[in-house]
Amino acid sequence: MRTRRARWEGLTGVALQVKDAVDRVLALVGLVALSPFLMVIALEIRVDSSGPIFYREPRAGRGAVVFMVYKFRTMVEGAEHIGLGRNVARNDERITRTGKWLRRTSLDELPQLINVARGQMSIIGPRPAPQSHAEKYTARQRRRLEMQPGITGWAQVNGRNSLSWEERIELDIWYVDHWSPLLDLRILLRTPLALLNARGLYGPDGITTDLRVSRDANVLARAALGDPAEEGPSSAAFGDPVAARDQPPPEPRPAAPVSR
């Protein structure tokens, strides 16, 4: 006789299969419906600056399966090799004219509907982590890989880059443990407001860092932008060098966590 927990896990498994199927259908419908708008954005990127229309990067999906994530390019080509490198600032000169409003509205994420249609992502779930970042996860942190990564998620509607990487991973794990269709609906309804106020688009000090950096490194980053203002404690978040959304956890340190 099946236990109550086994029955619940079975129902959850079926619900997740339905979620994946619905996601793929909605993504296909969205790509068709938004195709004229997507073409306008692609043309604007092409006219605005040289380089590819899309930014692609290997990401770790459910079960750490690697796939290529798509985003509209918002920075000059080869941005990770110039300026602040993999760090991104609010007034970063590498961000293109088109990239500024794409990032402000998070429309650079729309191409990920392709990933959803392919079954690599979900509309709602933990943000996909770069492969190199996922390789640094502890056993607990790897639990965020138990769910299909999403375009928006629990951490995104609760602060995004204004949170430390530890806080964001814990939010992702909480989502994995408490997932339900109702929770997904709650996140979906909260996403427009999060996009409108752009909360957490960058770190609390205006700089989204790739790895936790020292205070001196943040001061140098501000100096590179021509801002000599005093820098506060370093922040950490998740992201890629172009979109700066999902940054990796820092290397383990014996010292106490950096305070905000």
Can you characterise this structure?
The chain is mainly α and 260 residues long. It has one domain. The chain contains 7 helices and 7 strands; from the N terminus they run αβββααββαβααβα. Strands 2-1-5 form a 3-stranded antiparallel sheet. The longest helix has 45 residues, at 4-48. Residues 211-224 and 228-260 have low confidence and may be disordered.
Short account of what is shown:
Helices cover 40% and strands 10% of the residues. With 260 residues, it is mostly helical. The strands form 3 sheets. It has a 3-stranded antiparallel beta sheet with strand order 2-1-5. A two-stranded antiparallel ribbon has the order 3-7. Strands 4-6 form a two-stranded parallel ribbon.
Envelope shape = globular
The H/E string reads HEEEHHEEHEHHEH
Oligomer: single chain
Strand content: 5-15%
Unreliable parts: 211-224, 228-260
Main sheet: strand order: 2-1-5
Radius of gyration: 19 Å
Domain count: 1
Question: Averaged pLDDT, please?
Answer: 79
Classify the secondary structure makeup into a structural class. mainly alpha
Write down how many β-strands occur, each being a DSSP E stretch of 2 or more residues. 7
Biggest β-sheet strands, sense, barrel? 3 strands, antiparallel
Count of DSSP H/I helices: 7
- Terminal-residue CA separation: 51 Å
Helix content: 40-55%
